[in-house]
């Protein structure tokens, strides 16, 4: 039966590094250059994070207002100094004005320091809360969200996006507010001093807006292209680090370098162009400022000669013209940044709005359970309309061992996913001791389950803490006892620091068999009533395989166990074999019963038997 052999689960290992984090739809690394979709709603939600600091914010804005008013007043003092004291040569009054101006400048610097300090405290606290909220939200999200969202994208929202929000708000909020007051105040005072000069000074403003807009449109495009390319570069780096083994085995290093170089070169070119364009703005603004200066000086001089205004008014006007164009430039610059910050905030809130694992008030907490498991006409689909589990029914008595057998992609993992309530059934029921698992509190249910996967996840923590993960209150002695039962004690003893050896990224410095032994020790410690085991297919030497197998047998004793089975010995010993094909149970029974049937299982067994 060549066809079935090919599909059989008794298969050689598939070489590969496992799922690549960061794959999938919506892979974005930064939100710069993006526009917010619903500004009002985002503002409202952002306010939730800042509102507890409203008194502090009020204080900050008060100092900003006072600072801006002082800024508006100071050119008037210059006018007064020239007209009332310098021209009539009254030195004593000049000193007073000089002192007042020094006072204003010192006070302004002090206010600027206070504002910076206050905003820093507020934004750091807000980011702390936002990060915590997002992280705990991620813990509450159902597995299906992680299936559909790229891991890199989720990580980027937790780090980059939150940083963009707070950094920008920290830097821009006070500056925008102060710019607005300064601009309005300056225009008002300018009008009072000389309407004609004001109108003349303002003639540069449309020119300024037009030119800035012209350049900003170009640079915005270039910057967003830049961010996109940076995203591509990041994803190449991420994939290449995760997929190093595949790259090395297929000796595709040169190809990868070439791919990287291409994107890197493009990024550099776009980066240079973006910087060149945006670099035009400051000198251009300087030019326009000077133009305003010339206009004020020339026409002011003319008006003064004609006796319409005083020399002091010209001097203060020049100051106002400066004072008024600078915040205008700042506002233009900050507009883009603020937009990115709101877009980043929206990306954060989008995750916060994701659905959560639901729980109900009348949920049951299971105490001691016997471990009877029943699937009743269970249907399930990951994608609507495409069922992967079709009308599955079976019953397992407490303490029995069930082997799930079937070709790859037939639905074995999905069945155990449903039992763990990583996903809920579309229709039908899963019962534990006669109770529908949807009525059982999810945490409580999962506490009764022990899961040992082929490739278990280990944290970058000491070995003993990784085992203790199964029961946080376990003593060191209990950890060692569990390790001994799991046949893991011997290899742990020989690690550089024994039980205190800190594992590297996902325990990559251990063999797959050793990782599995740790997972078994962890499960032994958690003492679950129902076990879910995924037998290793590969990468385990015969000696370790024997250790794993005997540890698994010990673990299974007295517990209802579901084994995604790859070994004939396990399958033969199973109390019940479920043969799954295309989401359906096509045969069930014991090894002998199924062999006698001479059906699918018989053929699967024979093809395996022939090869072995
Ligand atoms: N998260 C998911 N989203 C959408 N479809 C999925 C998801 N996980 C699995 N599937 C699909 O569901 C079907 C059953 O997959 P499942 O992982 O249960 O098979 P399996 O029998 O455990 O396979 P294997 O022996 O290769 O581990 C497959 O067609 C698979 O493509």
TrEMBL record:
Keywords assigned by UniProt, alphabetized:
ATP-binding, Cell membrane, Membrane, Nucleotide-binding, Transmembrane, Transmembrane helix, Transport
- PANTHER family assigned to the protein according to its UniProt record, in alphabetical order: ATP-BINDING CASSETTE SUB-FAMILY B MEMBER 10, MITOCHONDRIAL, ATP-DEPENDENT PERMEASE MDL1, MITOCHONDRIAL
Q: Name one GO molecular function term.
A: ABC-type oligopeptide transporter activity
TM spans (from-to): 55-78, 98-122, 187-211, 291-318
Q: What is the lineage of its organism?
A: Bacteria, Bacillati, Bacillota, Bacillota incertae sedis, Caldicellulosiruptorales
InterPro entries registered for this protein in UniProt: AAA+_ATPase, ABC1_TM_dom, ABC1_TM_sf, ABC_transporter-like_ATP-bd, ABC_transporter-like_CS, P-loop_NTPase, Type_1_exporter
Domain ABC transmembrane type-1 per the UniProt entry, residue ranges: 58-340
Q: Name one GO cellular component term.
A: plasma membrane
**Could you tell me the superkingdom of the organism this chain comes from?**
Bacteria
Q: Where in the cell is it found?
A: Cell membrane
Which residue ranges are recorded for the region named Disordered?
A: 1-35
- Name of a matching Pfam family: ABC_tran
- ABC transporter domain residues are 373-607
Q: Where is the composition biased (Polar residues)?
A: 1-11
Q: How does it sit in the membrane?
A: Multi-pass membrane protein
Question: What name has this protein been given in UniProt?
Answer: ABC transporter related protein
């Amino acid at each position: 039966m060549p066809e079935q052999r090919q599909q059989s689960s008794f298969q050689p290992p598939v070489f590969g590094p496992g799922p690549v984090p960061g794959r999938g739809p919506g892979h974005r690394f930064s939100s710069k250059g993006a526009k917010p979709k619903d500004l009002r709603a985002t503002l409202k939600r952002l306010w939730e994070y800042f509102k507890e600091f409203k008194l502090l914010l009020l204080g900050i804005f008060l100092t900003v207002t006072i600072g801006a008013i002082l800024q508006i007043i100071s050119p008037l003092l210059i006018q007064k100094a020239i007209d009332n004291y310098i021209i009539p040569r009254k030195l004593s009054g000049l000193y007073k004005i000089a002192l007042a101006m020094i006072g204003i400048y010192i006070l302004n610097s002090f206010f600027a320091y206070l504002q910076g300090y206050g905003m820093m405290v507020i934004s750091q606290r807000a980011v702390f809360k936002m990060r915590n909220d997002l992280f705990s939200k991620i813990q509450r999200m159902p597995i299906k969200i992680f299936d559909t969202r790229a891991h890199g994208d989720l990580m980027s929202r937790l780090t980059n996006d939150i940083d963009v929000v707070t950094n920008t708000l920290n830097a821009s909020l006070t500056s925008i507010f102060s710019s607005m007051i300064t601009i309005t105040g300056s225009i008002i005072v300018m009008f009072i001093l000389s309407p004609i000069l004001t109108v003349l000074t303002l003639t540069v403003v449309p020119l300024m807006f037009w030119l800035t807009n012209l350049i900003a449109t170009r640079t915005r495009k270039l910057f967003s292209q830049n961010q996109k390319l940076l995203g591509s570069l990041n994803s190449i780096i991420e994939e290449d680090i995760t997929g190093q083994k595949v790259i090395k085995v297929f000796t595709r290093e040169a190809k990868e370098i070439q791919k990287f170089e291409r994107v890197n070169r493009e990024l550099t070119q776009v980066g240079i162009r973006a910087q060149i364009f945006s670099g035009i703005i400051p000198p251009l603004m300087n030019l326009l400022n000077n133009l305003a200066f010339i206009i004020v000086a020339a026409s002011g001089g003319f008006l003064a000669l004609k006796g319409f205004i005083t020399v002091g008014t010209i001097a203060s006007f020049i100051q106002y013209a400066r004072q008024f164009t600078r915040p205008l430039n700042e506002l233009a610059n900050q507009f883009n940044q603020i937009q990115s910050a709101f877009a980043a905030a929206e990306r954060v809130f989008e995750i916060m709005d994701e659905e959560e694992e639901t729980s109900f008030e009348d949920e049951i907490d299971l105490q001691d359970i016997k471990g009877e498991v029943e699937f009743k006409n269970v249907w399930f689909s990951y994608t609507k309309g495409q069922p992967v589990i079709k009308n599955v029914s079976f019953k397992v008595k407490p303490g029995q061992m069930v082997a799930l057998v079937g070709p790859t992609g037939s639905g074995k993992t999905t069945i155990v996913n449903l039992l763990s309530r990583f996903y809920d059934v579309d229709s039908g029921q899963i019962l534990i001791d006669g109770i529908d698992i949807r009525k059982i509190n999810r945490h409580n249910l999962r506490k009764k389950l022990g899961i040992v996967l082929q490739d278990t996840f280990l944290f970058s923590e000491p070995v003993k803490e990784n085992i203790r993960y199964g029961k946080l209150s376990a003593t060191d002695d209990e950890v060692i006892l569990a390790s001994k039962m799991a046949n893991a004690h011997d290899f742990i003893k020989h690690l550089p620091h024994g039980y205190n050896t800190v594992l590297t990224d996902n325990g990559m410095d251990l063999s797959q068999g050793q990782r599995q032994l740790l997972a078994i020790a962890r499960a032994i410690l958690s003492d679950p009533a129902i076990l879910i085991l995924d037998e290793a297919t590969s990468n385990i030497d015969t000696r370790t395989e024997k250790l794993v197998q005997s540890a698994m047998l010990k673990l299974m004793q007295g517990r209802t166990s579901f084994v995604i089975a790859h070994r004939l010995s396990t399958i033969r010993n199973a109390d019940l074999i479920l043969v799954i094909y295309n989401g359906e149970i096509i045969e069930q029974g014991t090894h002998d019963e199924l062999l006698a049937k001479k059906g699918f299982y018989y053929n699967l067994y024979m093809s395996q038997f022939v090869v072995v």
